[in-house]
């Protein structure tokens, strides 16, 4: 029986997804040093994770700007995309602190409302 190349590619894609699922990927919305993140993992208000640089940036990894004719990665612009075998990594502690401070998807503490009350009817 002859196997198709497309099927092998699909199987390899499934295996890599399974391998990543076994890693310590973020299960909660909390950004932590002991989690690993893939390239372009997005955190609202913070940006996109660049795994080779272990930090979050405004634009996705290797984002191409047609006006500048340049690629963005690791906080800089360059005429060619960045090439790295690293596509998953844990962030640095400084990157985590910055991400936690900038997040817009988390409600922060503050003064609660005193206008709410509960009534018990008998």
Structure description:
There is one protein chain. The radius of gyration is 21 Å and the shape is globular. Helix content is 22%, strand content 19%. Strand 3 and strand 4 (55-57) form a beta hairpin. 16% of the residues are buried. It has two helices and eight strands, in the order αββββββββα.
Could you outline the blueprint of secondary structure elements for this entry?
Layout: H1 5-21, E1 37-38, E2 42-43, E3 47-50, E4 55-57, E5 63-65, E6 70-73, E7 76-78, E8 88-89, H2 93-102
Antiparallel strand pairs: 1-8, 2-3, 3-4, 5-6, 6-7
**SSE order, one letter for each helix or strand:** HEEEEEEEEH
Number of helices: 2
Low-confidence stretches: 7-18
Summarize model confidence as the mean pLDDT. Answer: 78
Distance between the termini: 76 Å
Helix content: 10-25%
Strand order of the largest sheet: 2-3-4
**Percent range for β-strand residues:** 15-25%
What characteristic shape results from the CA principal axes? globular
Biggest sheet overview: 3 strands, antiparallel
Structural class: alpha+beta
Number of DSSP-assigned strands: 8
Radius of gyration: 21 Å
């Amino acid at each position: 029986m002859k196997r198709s190349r497309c099927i092998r590619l699909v199987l390899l894609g499934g295996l890599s997804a399974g391998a990543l699922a076994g890693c310590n990927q973020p299960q909660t919305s909390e950004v932590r040093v002991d989690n690993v993140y893939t390239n372009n993992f997005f955190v609202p208000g913070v940006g996109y994770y660049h795994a080779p640089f272990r930090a979050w940036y405004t634009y996705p990894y290797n984002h191409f700007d047609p006006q500048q004719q340049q690629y963005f990665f690791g906080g800089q612009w360059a005429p060619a995309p960045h090439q790295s075998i690293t596509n998953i990594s844990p962030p640095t502690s400084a990157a985590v602190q910055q991400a936690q401070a900038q997040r817009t998807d988390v409600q922060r503490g503050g003064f609660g409302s005193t206008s709410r009350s509960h009534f018990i009817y008998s």
